């Protein structure tokens, strides 16, 4: 029998990248999956890639009205469900001296407010034994230049993970976070980069990651699925999937 047959999952930000890979992994093991995204072209593409067993729903995670409507859609399509992935995220690389209010609000609205109010709306629909996973970042610790707002938003996400983990103990729902390093997704977590900027960011990742390579989407998605479904005695934890970057390791010199 498939490992996740009979299980139901919601992946916020599941139309491409790590979220889509989480959805594919769950679908391959028999789960019923509902994914969300906002960009209409990506929604249509995801319907084709994920196939008939996936529900693909357009829902802006930074909009409280849309989150409430999503709750109704989840009730209709899934009823009660088991796993919630708070994966939608965005980043802008810029020194703090040029950050605008619009850029600050956009990152916090998606990475923090969306995760908060989605959990508030959807957690009551979750079954005992279920798991919530917040996709954070290696940048939720440390002081990487150019990532002030993004880092602060992901640190806030870790904080929410721990408090939600406490408050959901009576409901027997575990809440954990995965903190990826540089991961090969179409956006590399920073939507809107030019090809040249993306190459620069990617090269930086190769240079500073102790394992000297990026993560595959499968490596990060596998860790997220493990936390949601299989880590039955783990809650309030942050799992780094970052090639040793956050641990401060260095590659041995010859
Ligand atoms: N890739 C990396 O190197 C890396 C590193 C550290 C952390 N992360 C984190 O990992 C997560 C996934 O990253 P990724 O690289 O896989 O990103 P991605 O490919 O850009 O995918 C992000 C997903 O979130 C959705 N999304 C964005 N804004 C949304 C909104 N307002 N409402 C609903 N959905 C929205 C996107 O859908 P649309 O098509 O609508 O945009 C997409 O499905 C993010 O939280 C990111 O911060 C990534």
TrEMBL record:
Belongs to the short-chain dehydrogenases/reductases (SDR) family. The lineage of its organism: Bacteria, Bacillati, Actinomycetota, Actinomycetes, Kitasatosporales. Pfam families: adh_short_C2 (PF13561). InterPro entries: NAD(P)-bd_dom_sf, SDR_fam. SUPFAM superfamilies: NAD(P)-binding Rossmann-fold domains. It comes from the Bacteria. Coiled coil: none annotated. PANTHER family: 3-OXOACYL-[ACYL-CARRIER-PROTEIN] REDUCTASE FABG, SHORT-CHAIN DEHYDROGENASES/REDUCTASES FAMILY MEMBER. Keywords: Oxidoreductase. It comes from Streptomyces arboris. GO terms for molecular function: oxidoreductase activity, acting on the CH-OH group of donors, NAD or NADP as acceptor. This is SDR family oxidoreductase.
């Amino acid at each position: 029998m498939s490992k996740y047959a009979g299980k139901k999952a919601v992946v916020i930000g599941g139309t491409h990248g790590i979220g889509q890979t989480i959805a594919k992994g769950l679908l391959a093991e028999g789960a019923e999956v509902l994914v969300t995204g906002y960009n209409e072209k990506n929604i249509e593409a995801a319907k084709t890639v994920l196939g008939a067993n996936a529900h693909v729903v357009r829902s802006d995670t930074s909009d409280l009205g849309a989150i409430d409507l999503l709750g109704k859609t989840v009730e209709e399509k899934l009823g009660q469900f088991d796993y919630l992935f708070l994966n939608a995220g965005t980043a802008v690389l810029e020194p703090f001296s040029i950050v605008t209010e619009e850029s600050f609000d956009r990152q916090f609205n998606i990475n923090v407010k969306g995760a908060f109010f989605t959990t508030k709306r959807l957690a009551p629909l979750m079954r005992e034994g279920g798991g919530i996973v917040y996709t954070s970042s290696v940048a939720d610790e440390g002081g990487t230049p150019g990532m002030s707002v993004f880092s602060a938003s992901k640190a806030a996400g870790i904080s929410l993970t721990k408090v939600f983990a406490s408050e959901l103990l009576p409901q027997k729902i575990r809440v954990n976070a995965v903190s990826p390093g540089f991961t090969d997704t179409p956006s590399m977590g920073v939507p809107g980069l030019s090809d040249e900027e993306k190459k620069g960011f990617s090269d930086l990742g190769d240079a500073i990651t102790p394992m000297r390579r990026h993560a595959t989407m499968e490596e990060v998605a596998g860790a997220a699925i493990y936390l949601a479904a299989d880590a039955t005695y783990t809650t309030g934890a942050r799992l780094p999937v970052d090639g040793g970057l956050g641990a401060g390791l260095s590659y041995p010199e010859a």
